[in-house]
Design brief:
This protein is mainly beta. The chain has 3 domains: 19-77, no CATH class; 87-290 and 300-545, YVTN repeat-like/Quinoprotein amine dehydrogenase (Methylamine Dehydrogenase, Chain H), CATH 2.130.10.10; 557-676, Immunoglobulin-like, CATH 2.60.40. Helices cover 13% and strands 39% of the residues. It is built from 11 helices and 46 strands. Strands 8, 9, 10, 11, 12, 13, 17 and 18 form an 8-stranded mixed sheet that branches. Strands 37, 38, 39, 41 and 44 form a 5-stranded mixed sheet that branches. Strands 40-46-45-42-43 form a 5-stranded mixed sheet, with no helix packed on it. The chain is globular. Residues 150-151, 199, 268, 360, 425-426, 472-473, 536-537 line the site of sulfanyl-(tricuprio-$l^{4}-sulfanyl)copper. Dinuclear copper ion binds at residues 593, 623, 658, 660-662, 666, 669.
């Protein structure tokens, strides 16, 4: 990246400079209400904020010097006690490895869903069935305890979120996780056997037939060793289509397939819908095929990968690829079905279109008619017409890349280019025919008008709103679906710099809530610090679409199988202990405020199988089961059954107890696990 393209933050000097710079930016591009809201928040940094106790609303406004815009923002985001948010936002946490759920417009953090990283409060990775989920994501048999999550994808029906499942990718290790939104628990992690590192996932097809995932930094297929001077011949990209079985709520690796590509780096993806349903689109960077090697005298990758003016949008006919696989025209590589480059070319299911320099986001418009690409080193978004792409394919006048893949003529596929500003990354849509693109280098959100059939005044920039700072992804309510809702947008800013109380040099990210209601300029409503990892993408769904359970459907429910567990104990008094040789099996129950049985004595070296059922039917009556020293901690939600299996290889006296403060006599909810030493 050249010096001029590095972010020039307005915050790198004194606050006075930054305010002057804000004024400049605001004068040029932003609306007046937004301007005064921003000035309000700048002033706020220097004021005493705690109002006098007992002050009236007018007195508070006066004392805190709130502007009318501040007050409107406060009223729009305030959620009275007991009232629910209208929308739910699912965001990744980057290398935190989990998923966050925020309520909108309050921006309250409602849940952290444990996905790739063990999480004791949810009993995730501390002895129960989630251990098997985590083991499913092992890397060549080695357990992994973290991930770099980027793109959550809600399941869709007819291109709209259906509220049933959530998928999320792991960039670091090439994995995909499945979360069931009935209980908001992770049910499956699959490891892509063809790649090590990925990025272009998760994106779903309009009826969730497939979950898309592609490499970022290519490796030889399967990640075997090959020196970097064999990059062109041995290293490969992989576009993966994970088959999803909605009935089972699981990805089916045996029915999934991938398409081999040259070792271009694949970036984001999107699935076609409407007229483009059956197609998928992936950006790429490093079509230069550069490899690192600073010590060998090669240029740094940031230079080497930005030599060419154009990279390639990958256009994939996945319906056809599905037929090609059904016809047996694939190879098994690492036990995974792979369509080779030659087959993909022969069958006409893979095309390239030049796209401006080092693109990042690719986003299909709500009707599925256009594909919007944002090139981080190009101040424009580039809009392709799906119809024109089809005409260009039919016309058959292709160049080819050095691997023989047809390249469609750029001009023939182009619908429009709209100049927005510096560092465009990602695009979302609303219900008024506007698109919203994040501008990383400008630290702004650009609102721009789509052309026909969305708007008459199309393909032009409407306004920009400054955000704080260095925005990555943005998410509008259902803003990547066939029916965006408009209303709100959240800017996921990578840097928060001066927005929050300083708590050491590791700063939170800043999620900023923006009102994108119709017929008025965008306005900033709320700053929400994200102190758990780094959100990349997020999706926002209407809360009413989610039909989550408040307690498990029946007592003895096994969340792994989503059915009653044969080892559940359904009634108090039916708990028991059985010994068979060196195996001790316990069938226990938890209720307020007992763990039954409350004494379990075994011999050192015994295998322990311990079934635990929370027989409660009351909402929120969760019990924990902690066994100190043995690294065991379960969370048993009302109705849930879990099974522990471990070897009692450490003699001693171990109290076990409930970790949720569930009743007045919660502290009495305990027992002893006694391991008698071998003589
Ligand atoms: Cu952070 Cu989508 Cu991985 Cu852009 S990506 S910011
Ligand atoms: Cu159950 Cu505390």
């Amino acid at each position: 990246m050249s010096e001029q393209l590095r972010p020039k933050p307005p915050y790198d000097r004194s606050r006075r400079v930054s305010r002057r710079r804000f004024l400049g930016v605001l004068g040029a591009a932003a609306s007046l209400p937004a301007a005064s809201a921003l000035l309000g928040s700048c002033n706020a940094l220097q004021r005493k904020e705690t109002p006098k106790l007992g002050a009236s609303a007018e007195e508070i406004i006066k004392q805190r010097q709130l502007t009318p815009e501040d007050v409107t923002a406060a009223l729009m985001t305030y959620m009275p006690s007991g009232k629910y948010d209208e929308y739910l936002m699912f965001s990744s946490t980057g290398h935190g490895g989990q998923v966050l759920v925020h309520g909108l417009p309050s921006m309250r953090l409602l849940k952290v869903i444990a996905v790739f990283t063990p999480e004791p409060w949810q009993g995730y990775g501390y002895g129960g069935s989630p251990n098997r989920v985590l083991e499913g994501g092992s890397f060549r048999g080695r357990p992994l305890t973290w991930a770099d999550t980027h793109h959550p994808a809600l399941s869709e029906t007819n291109g709209e979120y259906d509220g049933q499942f959530l998928f999320i990718n792991d960039k670091a290790n090439g994995r995909v996780a499945v979360i069931d939104l009935r209980d908001f628990e992770t049910k499956q992690i699959v490891k892509n056997p063809l790649l090590v590192n990925e990025h272009g996932g998760c994106f779903v097809t309009p009826n969730t037939e497939y979950v898309l995932e592609a490499d970022q930094y290519p490796v030889p297929l399967g990640g075997e060793y090959a020196p970097l001077n064999q990059y062109k011949e041995k290293y490969r990209g992989v576009l993966t289509f994970w088959k999803f079985d909605r009935q089972q709520g699981r990805i089916v690796p045996e029915e999934s397939f991938a398409i081999e590509t040259p070792p271009y780096w694949h970036d984001l993806a999107d699935a076609g819908k409407g007229p483009s349903e059956g197609w998928a689109f992936w950006n790429s960077i490093n079509t230069e095929l550069a490899v690192p090697g600073i010590l060998e005298g090669r240029p740094a990758m940031e230079m080497a990968t930005t030599q060419r003016d154009m990279d390639y949008l990958h256009v994939v006919n996945w319906r056809k690829a599905e037929q090609v696989v059904a016809a047996g025209k694939y190879e098994e590589v690492q036990g995974f079905k792979l369509i080779r480059i030659e087959t993909a070319v022969e069958e006409g299911l893979l095309y390239l279109i030049p796209e401006p320099k080092s693109p990042h986001g690719v986003d299909v418009t709500p009707r599925g008619d256009y594909i919007v690409v944002a090139g981080k080193l190009d101040p424009h978004v580039t809009v392709y017409s799906f119809e024109k792409i089809q005409q260009a394919i039919a016309a058959g006048q292709f160049d080819h890349d050095e691997y023989g893949i047809p390249i469609l003529p750029f001009e023939q596929c182009l619908e429009a280019q709209v100049e927005l500003g510096l560092g465009p990354l990602h695009t979302q849509f609303d219900d008024q025919g506007y698109a919203y693109t994040s501008l990383f280098l400008d630290s702004a959100v650009a609102r721009w008008a789509l052309g026909k059939p969305y708007r008459e005044d199309g393909w032009k920039l409407v306004e920009k709103l400054p955000v704080h700072y260095n925005i990555g992804h943005l998410a509008a309510v259902e803003g990547d679906t066939a029916k965006p809702a408009g209303t709100f947008l959240v800017a996921h800013n990578k840097w928060s710099v001066d927005r929050f109380s300083l708590l050491g040099p590791l700063l939170p990210q800043n999620a900023q809530l923006i009102d994108i209601g119709p017929d008025r300029p965008m306005r900033l409503l709320y700053d929400s610090p994200i102190g758990i990892g780094e959100p990349h993408y997020a999706q926002i769904i209407k809360a009413e679409r989610i039909k989550a359970w408040d307690v498990y459907p029946e007592v003895g429910w096994n969340p792994e199988t989503q059915s009653v567990d044969p080892n559940a104990v359904l009634k108090v008094g039916e708990e028991r202990i059985e010994r068979r040789g060196k195996t001790v099996e316990i069938w226990g129950v938890l209720l307020r405020s007992q763990i039954r049985p409350d004494v379990v004595e075994v011999e050192e070296g015994d295998e322990v199988i311990w079934h635990l059922t929370n027989i409660e039917r009351a909402k929120d009556a969760t019990h924990g089961f902690a066994l100190g020293g043995y690294n065991i901690n379960l969370s048993l939600e009302p109705g849930e059954t879990q099974t522990l299996r471990f070897v009692a290889d450490m003699p001693g006296t171990f109290p076990f107890y409930c970790t949720e403060f569930c009743s007045a006599l919660h502290l009495e909810m305990m027992g002893y696990f006694l391991v008698k030493p071998k003589r």
